[in-house]
Write a structure and sequence with these properties.
The chain is α/β, with parallel strands linked by helices. The chain is built from 5 helices and 5 strands, in the order βαβαβαβαβα. The longest helix is centred in the middle third of the chain and has 12 residues, at about 45-55.
Length: about 140
């Protein structure tokens, strides 16, 4: 027998995305989840890393991190590397979100420890479906 949404633990989602339009699309896509969640947004990668390190020690640390690959300032690859070097964050599921379809970006993200690499689809329905699919993984 599978668990009902009320029986599932709340997922703490951290979104690191500097494009307000993409952040809004992510929020709308996550509103389709049937699983309980709370979400924290960061536009700045450095601030996100500081906050992640602080919350990682608590029992309500992040379950899922959605990371924009092409952040201005601190690139997503550097943030991914830092997160994966932090022992207290090793259990969080990390998804790279990007407009890049480059195989070298995909390979680098995988080598650095990304659990999933999702290209921001041009078709809105495809993008929503990709994020909806994550609720079973987190």
């Amino acid at each position: 027998m599978s668990a009902t949404p009320a029986e599932l633990a709340e997922v703490h989602i951290v979104v690191i995305e500097n494009n307000p339009h993409d952040a809004q699309l992510i929020r709308e896509a996550l509103d389709l989840w049937t699983r309980p969640y709370r979400i924290t947004f960061y536009q700045d990668g450095r601030k996100a890393l500081i906050a992640l390190r602080q919350t990682a020690e608590s029992p309500v640390g992040p379950t899922l991190v959605l990371l924009d690959w092409n952040l201005s300032g601190l690139h997503g690859s550097k943030i991914l590397r830092e997160i994966r070097q932090e022992p207290s964050l090793e259990k969080c599921f990390l998804v790279v979100l990007t407009s890049s379809s480059s195989e070298s970006d995909r390979q680098l993200a995988q080598e650095l420890g990304a659990d999933k690499f999702v290209t921001k689809a041009i078709a809105l329905d495809d993008f929503f479906y990709s994020l909806l699919e994550l609720q079973s993984l987190a």
